[in-house]
Amino acid sequence: MFLKGNTVNLRALEPSDADTLYCWENDMSLWPVSFTQIPFSRFILEEFVNSAYQDIYTNKQLRLMVEDPQTQKSIGIIDLFEFDPQHARCGLGIYISEAYRQKGCALECVELVKSYTFTVLHLKQLFVHVNTGNAASLALFEKAGFEKSGLKKCWHRTGLNSFEDVWFLQCLNQAG
User: Fold this and answer.
1) Given the DSSP bridges, would you call strands 9-12 and 162-172 parallel, antiparallel or unpaired?
2) Which of 76, 79, 84, 113 could cysteine-pair with 96, CB 3.0–4.6 Å?
3) Count of CB atoms situated within 10 Å of the CB of 105
4) Any residues with CB less than 8 A from the CB of 44 and at least 6 apart, and which?
5) Rounded to whole angstroms, how far apart are CA atoms 54 and 4?
6) So where are the chain's domains?
7) The pLDDT value given to residue 36
8) Which CATH fold topology does 3-123 show?
9) 6 Cβ contact partners less than 8 Å away, ≥ 6 residues apart
10) pLDDT reported for residue 158
């Protein structure tokens, strides 16, 4: 296990995760918040999982599975992206399965990732992009110490001629 919490554990991807990723990545209801527009094939996801050398310095990203420590069932995923060691920052994305929402799992995941990125990777900041209409994500990240630092107007296309604003939130490492 990579990072252990009370209600969740975070671990590296395993080949057996390809089927779970296939379901999550191709769930069109998640595409508006993940900025995905096309489906992923099982082959592509198997290749990604099997060949993904999990080195954030090489790939500039890191995906971690979120597990329920009692059942060892995968209940979500954490994405670290746009890793920039020169400027000591990284983007953060999170998905938690619907059955595990509203139980503190997402908050614990964010806290575990903050601890890892601030103490091991020595980052100065994490950032997130949250659609203005996503009240649950805004509440999560604000509770985790992220602050709104900018509003990106008409940032996310939601239809042919409709757009949604996106909040840019940052969490600064006060120790670093």
Assistant:
1) unpaired
2) 76
3) 21
4) none
5) 18
6) 3-123
7) 64
8) Aminopeptidase (3.40.630)
9) 108
10) 82
* pLDDT score recorded for residue 116: 96
Give me the residues paired with residue 98 across strands. none
Residues of the chain with pLDDT under 50: none
Q: Which two tokens stand for residue 147?
A: 């602050």
> What tokens appear for 163 in the block?
């757009």
3-state secondary structure of 171: strand
Question: Mean pLDDT score of the chain, rounded to an integer?
Answer: 88
User: Of 55, 124, 134, which is closest to residue 87 (Cα–Cα)?
Assistant: 124
Residue type, 78: I
Element (H, E) at 122: none
List Cβ neighbours of 68 (8 Å cut-off, separation of 6 or more). 7, 8, 75, 100
Q: Return all residues near 72 (Cβ < 8 A) that are at least 6 apart.
A: none
Chain-centre distance for alpha carbon 128: 9
Q: What's the length of the chain?
A: 176
Q: For residue 104, how far is the Cα from the chain centroid?
A: 15
Distance CA 69, CA 84 (A): 31
